[in-house]
Structure formats: structure tokens, C-alpha cells
């Protein structure tokens, strides 16, 4: 049994992290201290935007007029499926109340967050689908106030299709601002007066780090970084499709990992042979990004057994994980760590990224070992409550008092004592454990 790195990445998720951390920390501190003026200054210097930060209804309507009808139809197609899936997620968890013992009731309530901040990338590419994934899911979950932001593309502001998608999905306020300054503005409530309770959405390493540093002050969807793809493929897989899918994700950016896990050296050879031509055939911007990503972050791991492949894949915990293998059920039953699973050759990451219905805002950098992707539940506070009769208090109060005294928490114990004295005057209760622990 062996695990062999046919191609090993030269860089990893931590490469260049220190500089990113320092830059983001400084920017957040400055924007918090100086407010909207500093955010606008960064918008001018980094986004090249001199216009209004808050998008007007007139600008939205003008953007709609520039979006072709077929593109509008495609955006609606994606919106309908993402919203339907988010609604099914929301409905999969319900409020309830249960009687734990006679007279003692405990329950669960689902309370949507007040304000969500949804970041939509718009730099190298116009991430239209990301507007739907974040804003529509928040709205479906019942969030009362949805703020969205994206980087201005040109003198007209945000890409018109992104603006159209944001508006369709239900954004209440849209900010023309990208990067750390956009994240900070939503977190601090700049331009809206409504600080975000949660920040969601994909972005570059600066956006991801800004969310990380703000976590605790507000919620975030997950710790995430550049997008990843992992493909598990065996000797029956089509090398043309495997190579195309790896390159398709690598075009996201020069730091986007692409991994192939396989039991077939023949397949590894065939995929390696095909990738350079596929990268070269892309337009210049995409080709440069994919070339750097595959060179610096691409890996091929060859294993002797399927069990070893599962072990490796779960260790990597890929954001997107494709299965191009025989016996799909065997794999789906054993794999545990991934952001979203694409089962069979017919399902590919791009379908999930754009319109098939599942959310494409997913965990990276190994976070899929402990969390899933963005879902309706991320915008819901799952809170509990309890109520009980006086009769139920007899056992609960006495037990609480004894446990509290055993822990050395006399004040806690006396909250039970005082209720027993009031509800059952003159009755004796054993409120101390005599035996030494």
C-alpha cells in the first residue's frame, strides 16, 4: 500500500498569509476609526470609483435595461433553483417543544438574523451567480435586512448583470465597493446604519482575511480562501473531462488549488498530458490564472487502493469534490469531508457554481472537516427555551442545588433552595450530597 505524489504543489494555503494579515488589520482599524470617509478613500484608490457608494433605484433600472433578455432568463433559472433548495434547507429544521419529564418543557425556536452582509466578487470575473447564492439564501431564510456589495466594474458602477441578480434576489441596499473596504462597511454599518450580524460570500485572500478578523464581532459563513477542486477518478474516467474540470476551476485565480486523487497512473499520465493545451487554449487572462494555479498549487496523488484515496481526500477536505469513478455508491458512503459532492461524470463543479441549485459558497483550506457550505440555516439563530410547572420544579430544583454545591457554586444552589422554600413550605429536601467526592 502506498500514496505517491505524482505532482506535488510548490505552494499551499498559507503562502503569503503574513502580509495579507497585516494589510487587512491596518485597513480595518483605519476604516473603523475614520468611518465612511476612509472607506470612500479606499474605494477611490483601490476600486477607482468616485461615484455614490449606495446604488440608487435609477441605477438599478438602468442596469436592467443593459442586461440581454437571454441573460435575464438564465439568471432567473439559477435564482429559482437556488431559492427552492434554500427553502428546502430552511424547512428541514423546525421549531419544536417536547416534555422532558412531567411538567418540564423545552423547545427550539428559529429566529432569522436582523442584517446580513453579502459580498459578491466582481474583479477578474463578474460573479453573477454569487449574488444569487448569498442574497437569495439570506432572503429565503427570512433575514430582515440584506446588504450586498460588489466592486464597481467601470464608470457605470457594478456589473449590470450582478446588479440585476442582486436586486432580483432581494437585496435591500447595494454598496458599490469591493475588497476589505466593502467588508468593513457592511460589518460596521457604514452607509446603512445597520451593522451586519453575519458576513457571507466568497472573495480573494484579503476579503477572506477581513471576514476572519471580524469573526466574533459578527458571524461569518465560514473561514474560506481561494476556491479548490478535488477530483477522484479511476481507470474508467475520461481524461479529457477530468483535465477540463481541473482547468475549469484553476482559471479562478493563480492561487486556486486543483487536485486529482486516483488509483490509475495511466489516467494521471493522460490528464497531465492534456492540461497544458487546455490552459493555453483559454483567453489570456484565464490562461495566465490557470497556468499559475496548476503550476504552483496543482497536485496529482496516486494511491494503491480506494481506501487510501478516501483517506487522502478526507484529509484534503476539498471545497468541491467530483467523483468520476465506477461504483459511485461505494464512494458516497465512505467519503466524509468535502464542501459539496458532484456524483458522476454528468455532474461538474461549474453546474453547482452557476445554476443547479446547491450553494457554491463553500469551505476551503480544510474547513470542510468541520463545516458545510452556506445554507439557509446559517442565517437562522437556533435558540432554545424552557418552561415548567411548580410540580416539575420539585425534582429540578433539588437536583440543581445538589449538583451546584458539588461544583462549589453556592449561589446557583440557592436559586433552587429559594424556590423549594416558596413552593413547598415546611417540606424537607436533601440539598447536599453528604458523601465526599
Structural summary, described in words:
With 437 residues, this protein is of the alpha/beta class. The protein has three domains: 3-13 and 226-372, Rossmann fold; 35-221 and 377-382, Rossmann fold (3-Layer(aba) Sandwich); 390-437, no CATH class. The protein is 47% helix and 17% strand. A six-stranded mixed β-sheet has the order 1-11-10-9-12-13, with helices on both faces. A five-stranded parallel β-sheet has the order 6-5-4-7-8, sandwiched between helices. The longest helix has 23 residues, at 69-91. The mean pLDDT is 94.
**N- to C-terminal distance:** 51 Å
Oligomer description: single chain
Percent in helix: 40-55%
* Helix/strand structural class: alpha/beta
In CATH terms, the superfamily of the largest domain is Nitrogenase molybdenum iron protein domain
Largest sheet: 6 strands, mixed
Poorly predicted ranges (pLDDT <50, ≥5 residues)?
none
Order of helices and strands: EHHHHEEEHEHEHEHEEHEHHEHEHEHEHH
Q: What spatial form do the alpha-carbon principal axes imply?
A: globular
Number of helices: 16
The CATH topology of the largest domain:
Rossmann fold
Q: How many beta-strand elements?
A: 14
Counted up, domains total 3
CATH class of the largest domain: Alpha Beta
Strand order of the largest sheet: 1-11-10-9-12-13
